[in-house]
Q: What sequence folds into this?
């Protein structure tokens, strides 16, 4: 009986030690620490010599209340604050209810461009949150614009 108690105590102790939280020194769940990623780019770390820098006047717009069936548009303005020509390669809405138009030619340093988003509220109801992914030749190369509205029936 004494041997069984000692073995049981040893097993419980071993189980407690093996379940102890693994404390790694890296960041994140897997011990990976990547200081430069798309979510936390520090422009001071990455050299932008000769590169374009896109600066939006705003990245979110709320249309407020929209009557079902209406089409509403908003123009997002931006400036190239970098040293190279800015090129927008694609503008991809999160759904087919939003259609984009944008400046297609390269935007020179110091010049402005636009991305116009038109939202079609047909067959929509309630709060609508849409995002649009903008691919550019900047660092980071993807930017997200947001539009919102509350669609009500007539």
A:
């Amino acid at each position: 009986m004494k041997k069984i108690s000692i073995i049981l105590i040893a097993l419980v102790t071993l189980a407690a030690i093996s379940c102890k939280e693994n404390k790694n020194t890296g960041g994140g769940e897997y011990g990976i620490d990547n200081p430069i990623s798309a979510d936390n780019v520090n422009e001071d770390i990455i050299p932008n010599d000769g590169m374009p820098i896109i600066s939006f006047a705003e990245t979110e717009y709320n249309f407020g209340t929209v009557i079902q069936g209406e089409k509403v548009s908003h123009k997002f303005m931006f400036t190239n604050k970098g040293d190279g020509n800015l090129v927008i390669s694609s503008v991809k809405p999160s759904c087919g209810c939003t259609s984009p138009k944008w400046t297609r030619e390269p935007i020179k340093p110091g010049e402005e461009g636009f991305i116009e988003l038109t939202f079609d509220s047909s067959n929509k109801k309630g709060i609508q949150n849409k995002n649009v992914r903008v691919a550019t030749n900047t660092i980071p190369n993807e930017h997200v614009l947001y539009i919102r509205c509350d669609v009500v029936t007539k």
Q: What stands out?
A: The longest helix spans residues 2-18. The longest strand covers residues 126-136.
